[in-house]
Amino acid sequence: MGAGQGWCLLLCLALSRVAADPEERQWRKVDVVLDCFLVEEDRHPGSLAGSRTTVEALLVLRQVPVLDDGSLEAFTDFQGGTLAKDNPPVTFEASVNLVQIPQAEALLHADCNGKEVSCEISHYFLQATKKASFIANVQVPGGGPSVSMVMKVLRDAENGAVLHPTLKLPLSPQGMVQTAVELQVTTQTPLLNFLLGSSASLHCGFSVAPGLDLTGVEWRLQHKGHGQLVYSWTTGQRQAKREGASLESEQLLLAGDASLTLPSLTLKDEGTYICQITTSLYQAQQIVQLHVQASPKVQLSLTNKALPPTLICNIAGYYPLDVTVTWIREEPGGAPVPVSGASFSSLRQSTAGTYSVSSFLKAEPGPEGTTYTCQVTHISLEEPLRSTAWVAPPEQKTAFGVLLASSLFLLTLLFLGLQRWPGTNKSRDHFLCQHTHLSSREDHTAHVSQPSGLTQHQTREGKQPPTLAPPQ
């Protein structure tokens, strides 16, 4: 267990004991301790260019204001003496007096919520100053906040000062590299999902130490190997490359809000957005992944071109590509049963980039009719989308056909019998006239009784489905 994990374990035990009313919570300054990795460029002779090595490190954010619910009374500050004597991790002590860390509470409680914070520290090289600096990138997994912090080393090497064996930087008496955070850039939502045609707000906040000037804000989009400028801001100038893109008002921008608004999303807006904050001395950025989704539309129909009849489920206008189609069959009084054996058409793509596909299933209605459901599951749907129809049993038409054939057979026998009797031509002609009129009416009734097809029925909760009568 690392030093940071042990420190967070003590915090979790304290949090489990007290739970105060949210309205009674007050601000309190605490130390936030994070297990990290220090990334260093390999400068040894013969090493490959760009190769890196990582070593264990510890980041101690000193006296960060967080909301206290009463459970932090017994929580003490971090002491360097608690570090292991043998092979201790590289420890960075960072003061946050010059900037704000708005996501500190999420970092403090991440371990208690079963989330392991990702933390990576690397050198930050400055051309304008000889001061050593580092940048720490911290992220809470599962869509939690992400923070990038530029840290300036405070202590200069003095005669007799203890230097870190590899970093060659002066250490405090507690064996820590003392730094101060001078720029932080954060996003509350590193992963976003929005529906096609809606408006999206991409959060990007920042805090700058006094004495540093904000000189520029830039949003760029990276997607499928291509990059493009979306929006840029410099002192007194704005430029929107994407139509309708906008930043917050200048007052909010200067107060630390560089969030980007994108109206009327299209599939071309999908990708990785980079929010880059530039000051007179430093530069840092945050990444926001934006996924655009389109919900499918489902329509169920019946084709009368083959026996047995075929049900067609059309799924149109969805994005992204992955979609699941399930057929369900249910007879009166029975339980719904999944049906296999469905086939699919080739995939179709519209000019807007959305997809469509059709699924085909041979209908096998029971003696009392059968309900068929086409169920579609897609990432854009909170619950599966269903289209349901009732297919009439084939016996309804078969019984009518047998009755009609039997009637015609009996009438034929009667007609042949009447021909044997002389002098009955008039009566026979009168009878044949009546029979012809009756037969014509029966044929007309059989024709109009044929179903006109399927009336589409689409529901999420299940209502009385329409009736489908299979052809004979």
From TrEMBL:
<dbReference type="InterPro" id="IPR013106">
    <property type="entry name" value="Ig_V-set"/>
</dbReference>
<keyword id="KW-0256">Endoplasmic reticulum</keyword>
<keyword id="KW-1003">Cell membrane</keyword>
<keyword id="KW-0333">Golgi apparatus</keyword>
<dbReference type="GO" id="GO:0005789">
    <property type="term" value="C:endoplasmic reticulum membrane"/>
</dbReference>
<keyword id="KW-0677">Repeat</keyword>
<dbReference type="GO" id="GO:0000139">
    <property type="term" value="C:Golgi membrane"/>
</dbReference>
<keyword id="KW-0391">Immunity</keyword>
<keyword id="KW-0812">Transmembrane</keyword>
<keyword id="KW-1133">Transmembrane helix</keyword>
<dbReference type="InterPro" id="IPR036179">
    <property type="entry name" value="Ig-like_dom_sf"/>
</dbReference>
<keyword id="KW-1015">Disulfide bond</keyword>
<keyword id="KW-0492">Microsome</keyword>
<dbReference type="InterPro" id="IPR003006">
    <property type="entry name" value="Ig/MHC_CS"/>
</dbReference>
<dbReference type="InterPro" id="IPR007110">
    <property type="entry name" value="Ig-like_dom"/>
</dbReference>
<feature type="region of interest" description="Disordered">
    <location>
        <begin position="441"/>
        <end position="472"/>
    </location>
</feature>
<keyword id="KW-0393">Immunoglobulin domain</keyword>
<keyword id="KW-0732">Signal</keyword>
<dbReference type="InterPro" id="IPR003599">
    <property type="entry name" value="Ig_sub"/>
</dbReference>
<comment type="subunit">
    <text>Interacts with peptide-free HLA-A*02-B2M complexes or those loaded with low affinity peptides, likely facilitating peptide exchange onto higher affinity peptides. Interacts with MR1 in a ligand-independent way; this interaction may stabilize MR1 pool and facilitate ligand loading and dissociation.</text>
</comment>
<dbReference type="GO" id="GO:0005886">
    <property type="term" value="C:plasma membrane"/>
</dbReference>
<feature type="compositionally biased region" description="Polar residues">
    <location>
        <begin position="447"/>
        <end position="457"/>
    </location>
</feature>
<feature type="domain" description="Ig-like">
    <location>
        <begin position="173"/>
        <end position="289"/>
    </location>
</feature>
<dbReference type="Pfam" id="PF07686">
    <property type="entry name" value="V-set"/>
</dbReference>
<dbReference type="Pfam" id="PF07654">
    <property type="entry name" value="C1-set"/>
</dbReference>
<protein>
    <recommendedName>
        <fullName>Tapasin-related protein</fullName>
    </recommendedName>
</protein>
<dbReference type="GO" id="GO:0002376">
    <property type="term" value="P:immune system process"/>
</dbReference>
<feature type="transmembrane region" description="Helical">
    <location>
        <begin position="399"/>
        <end position="418"/>
    </location>
</feature>
<dbReference type="InterPro" id="IPR003597">
    <property type="entry name" value="Ig_C1-set"/>
</dbReference>
<keyword id="KW-0472">Membrane</keyword>
<dbReference type="InterPro" id="IPR013783">
    <property type="entry name" value="Ig-like_fold"/>
</dbReference>
<feature type="signal peptide">
    <location>
        <begin position="1"/>
        <end position="20"/>
    </location>
</feature>
<feature type="domain" description="Ig-like">
    <location>
        <begin position="296"/>
        <end position="386"/>
    </location>
</feature>
<dbReference type="InterPro" id="IPR050380">
    <property type="entry name" value="Immune_Resp_Modulators"/>
</dbReference>
